[in-house]
Design a protein that fits this description.
The chain is mainly alpha-helical and 156 residues long. 81% of the residues lie in helices and 0% in strands. The protein has seven helices and no strands. Helix 2 (18-38) packs antiparallel against helix 3 and helix 6 (79-109) runs antiparallel to helix 7 (113-148). The longest helix is centred in the C-terminal third of the chain and has 36 residues, at 113-148. The relative contact order is 0.09.
Length: 156
């Protein structure tokens, strides 16, 4: 919405949406667990189609079921591109961070498990925000594409 948001504002908003977040998580697991149990491919497909449920819920102020539908709608026709975007993110950001964490963990683990875990936590602390910002940008790009193509009646 192009408005400045503080951490306190974010926490207040999350607490107001807590019930919807819990319901969204329950619905997501209700769909994804059987899909992954049946076969890996349907689980991956559904995970990509429903990966923006929390963003629709929080950024667009939707309810859990509406957010589920919104994620499905936004990802329609873009599954392959989103999958590749996540794959590239994993190869470019997550995999090097994992390898660096493993190497540093092995080195520092000889001295102290606490230091080893601290190094891993520090790397996660750096990588987490990068991933979160990437997902928001991807979500906003899909919203913009939907509005440009006339598939969307909600403008942020």
């Amino acid at each position: 919405t192009q408005q400045g948001v503080t951490i306190a504002d974010s926490m207040q908003r999350a607490s107001e949406k807590f019930t919807q977040l819990v319901l969204a998580t329950f619905l997501l697991w209700l769909i994804l667990i059987p899909a992954f149990i049946c076969l890996i491919i349907p689980g991956i497909y559904l995970s990509i189609r429903l990966c923006f449920i929390y963003y629709a819920l929080m950024i667009e102020n939707r309810g859990a079921i509406d957010a589920l539908s919104r994620s499905w709608s936004l990802t329609k026709g873009y599954w392959g591109q989103i999958f590749l975007a996540f794959l590239m993110l994993g190869l470019v950001v997550a995999l090097p961070a994992f390898i660096l964490g493993a190497i540093l963990g092995a080195i520092f683990g000889q001295f102290s498990p606490v230091i080893s875990q601290s190094v891993g936590s520090f790397i996660g602390l750096i990588i987490g925000p990068i991933l979160a910002v990437y997902y928001v940008f991807l979500f906003m790009s899909l919203v913009n594409l939907a509005s440009e193509r006339g598939r969307d009646r909600t403008y942020i």
